[in-house]
Amino acid sequence: MQQVFKRPQSLKDVQTHFCPGCHHGTIHRLVADAMDLHGVQERTIGVASVGCSVFLYGYFDIDVVEAPHGRAPAVATGVKRAKPDNFVFTYQGDGDLAAIGTAEIIHAANRGEDITVIFVNNTTYGMTGGQMAPTTLVGQKTSTSPYGRDKSKDGSPIRMAELMAQLGGVAYSARVAVDSPKHVLEAKKVIREAFGYQVQGRGFSFVEVLSACPTNWGMNPLKANARVGEEMIPYFQLGVFKKEEA
Amino acid sequence: MILTEQPRVRFERAAELSVHLAQQDSLEGQLSKRLFVKGNEAAAMGAVAAGCRYYFGYPITPQSDIPEYLSRELPKLKGEFIQAESEIGAINMLLGASATGVRAMTSSSSPGISLKQEGISYMAGAELPGVIINISRSGPGLGGIDASQSDYFQAVKGGGHGGYHIPVLAPNSVQEMYDLTLHAFDLADLYRTPVMLLGDSVVGQMKEALVPNPRPVRELPEKEWAVRGKGSAGQRVVKSLFLGDGELEAHNWRLHAKYQVMKEKECISEEFETADAKLIVTGFGSVSRIAQTAVAMAREEGLKVGLFRPVTLFPFPEKALAEAAGHAGRVLVIELNTGQMVEDVRLSVGARAQVSFYGRPPGAGSLPSPEEILDVIRKNYDQAPQ
Questions:
Q1: Domain B34-229+252-265 falls in which CATH fold?
Q2: Where is the Thiamine pyrophosphate enzyme TPP-binding domain (chain A) (predicted)?
């Protein structure tokens, strides 16, 4: 009998600590799939950030460096400059990348560091208990925006994939979601493509992945999954915003 | 003033260290190789001689000669120089490069070093080597750019969060800016720790003769822990997060044990005219140069005064100082601040000797002259137990 579905080799055979309905598991799987496709597992150095994704060394069977909050793109810069033959990616959440780590992501991207950034946007700080993030939608209630995000005081949610596309050093920037089988397949293709840019030494690649956080959104997994399509995608539109041709 | 007697360098249980190997070279050999450079350039040359090929930094006075020199030299050596977006970016690039096992460094000055403390704490926690040169300046806040020793506490007591220490080396000459940079890279690899070279604008900006004499490195352990891509060797993780039951406590005790080994093996100090001294003057870095001139002047007046200079500030040369102070009976601490190292002097000396302090907080015009220090020496000498 032909085996048509199996765990990617780059993923460990363990249970994750993620909450029911959280999209990190799906995204981990897609990242592992892309590493397998390009055959880079053995020369990959992943950079973990601070947040729910810090434990990625427990799930990916690769070498990992843990970065301080927001600093993963700077850490990855040091890794890649020292070891240009290694495959280097960061995996960061929205508070990490789009708030405390804004300087690091903008400048690593602008220098055109030959790394890939996986940016998981769930519109909240997950690990610390659901506070307002730079990507929290206007009106969205969180533990630190109990009356809803107020545009006049808190600003508007940052669209990172579009912002990245403006920078000269960025070769590839896209936004995907994993809330439906169709979107998962598209996300798989995009992450594979982004990794391909680094494998070919074509510069900085960036993939924003919209993700559900049922626990901190106060929703059950099905409702949280539905919110991605109903509320997030209309504001954070899916698509490839920059794709430098060879 | 020409000093006739050379200071005696003392290595506590680390006699194999050849920080002053340049002095062992023949005079002819020294003269043929002698350069006339700034302290900052000497440190950058020392880094290159140590095999460092990766530098990450951000402009700040009075240390910018270091990135300027390395931005010119590292590309010729197939190295990497990055002017980072911030001090925070730079220290984290150092963290990343160091995690792969290469020798790498950053440099800055006090306000920038404050920004780097987050990364230094993470490196100390993850046990990553790396060299940080701090050509410190005056504060608090924006302060000024004058020679300053206000950051002694920040450097030696663990400047970031989490209760760690890093070795801190305090050069007082251009030659030592070079020699101690080489030594810093060895210590970093040997103990898997960030190491700080703590200077100021006096040692960074002044020009002196330098004999660039790269010495053989100490025998260093293989970097089995470095990330290289797992290959067939299995996964390696560089991290400072320990959540398992008892893990973090054990980790902290292990770090503590490492600091005890440093205290046992890595203290360096220098003594000048201490053997028969009734009064020991002590200070580190730039101020020790001025103090040494003042001590020589006091000797000419017939006062039995000696100089004890800690070269390592962490580990602090407690035993050597206690011994010298015990013979003398009185210690005068001189610092360019309102009193920081004096606390470690008091702890080291205990009841063996009286301790007094002369401080000049940094700022334009506050650097003491040898005559001013001589005056303080005379007053203290009269009070020393006879």
A1: Rossmann fold (3.40.50)
A2: 63-209
- pLDDT at position A246 over 80: no
Decide if B37 contacts B210 (C-beta within 8 A). Answer: yes
Fold for domain A24-243? Answer: Rossmann fold (3.40.50)
Across the A/B interface, how many CB contacts are shorter than 8 Å? 134
For residue A87, count other CB atoms closer than 10 A to its CB.
24
Q: Looking at residue B30, what is its pLDDT?
A: 59
In this predicted structure, the answer to whether residue B11 has a pLDDT above a threshold of 70 is no
Kindly determine whether residue B237 and residue A64, on different chains, have CB atoms separated by under 8 Å.
yes
Average pLDDT for chain B: 91
Q: Classify domain B269-383 at the CATH class level.
A: alpha beta
What string of DSSP letters covers B11-78? ETT-TT--TTGGGGS-HHHHHHH-EEEEHHHHHHHHHHHTT--EEEE---TT-THHHHHHHHHGGGGT
Q: What is this model's ipTM? A: 0.96
Residue B226 pLDDT > 70, yes or no?
yes
Instruction: Give the whole-angstrom CA distance, residue B343 versus residue B152.
Output: 11
Asked if B227 has any chain A CB less than 8 Å from its own CB, the reply is yes
Equal CATH topology for B34-229+252-265 and B269-383: yes
Is A63 touching B (CB cutoff 8 A)?
A: yes
Query: Hey, are the CB atoms on B100 and A106 less than 8 Å from each other?
Result: no
Q: Which two tokens stand for residue B216?
A: 């053989």
Which residues, listed in sequence order, are joined to residue B332 by a DSSP beta bridge?
A: B281, B356
User: Percentage of residues in chain B with pLDDT exceeding 70?
Assistant: 91
State how far the Cα of B21 lies from the Cα of B275, in Å rounded to an integer.
Answer: 24
pTM of the model: 0.94
Distance CA B154, CA B261 (A): 21
Question: Distance (Å, rounded) from C-alpha B40 to C-alpha B181?
Answer: 11
